[in-house]
Each structure stands twice: as C-alpha cells, then as structure tokens.
Design goal:
2 strands; 46% helix
Length: 72
C-alpha cells in the first residue's frame, strides 16, 4: 500500500479556512491522520456545513487522501 507522508503532519498544512481549522481543533483533530479517519457523518454531527466538508475533502484530495481512510 502506498505510504502517505502527510499523515503525521499538523492539519495546518492543508491551508483550510481559519474557522474550519479552529473547529477541527475544538473536536480534538490536530493531525492530518485524525482528519483522514473521520467520516462525513461525524463532521456533520459536529456542526460542519456541507461547504466545510467539501473544502476538507478537496484539500485532502490534493495530497492524495480522502475522508474514510481512502488513499489515492
């Protein structure tokens, strides 16, 4: 399986909006790996909007990852 070097990095490398980053940190998501393991439903339950989730998905896809532990 492909090794992704970004998993251990802080979520700040994704360059998400400041509000999204603060909200992720408020639910104890600090590393890319933590975010990568999240499911869309978990983010929805924590009041993230569809736009927030779309932004997260796009930023993850740019580094070869997706929500639900998918690698590209």
């Amino acid at each position: 399986m492909k090794d992704i070097k970004y998993l251990e990095n802080n979520i700040d490398i994704l360059n998400l909006d400041d509000i999204v980053t603060k909200r992720l940190k408020s639910i104890s998501i600090y590393k890319v790996e933590d975010l990568w393991k999240c499911k869309r439903n978990y983010l929805k339950e924590n009041d993230f909007t569809n736009n927030d989730i779309s932004q997260i998905k796009i930023k993850l896809q740019l580094i070869g990852l997706d929500l639900n532990k998918k690698k590209y």
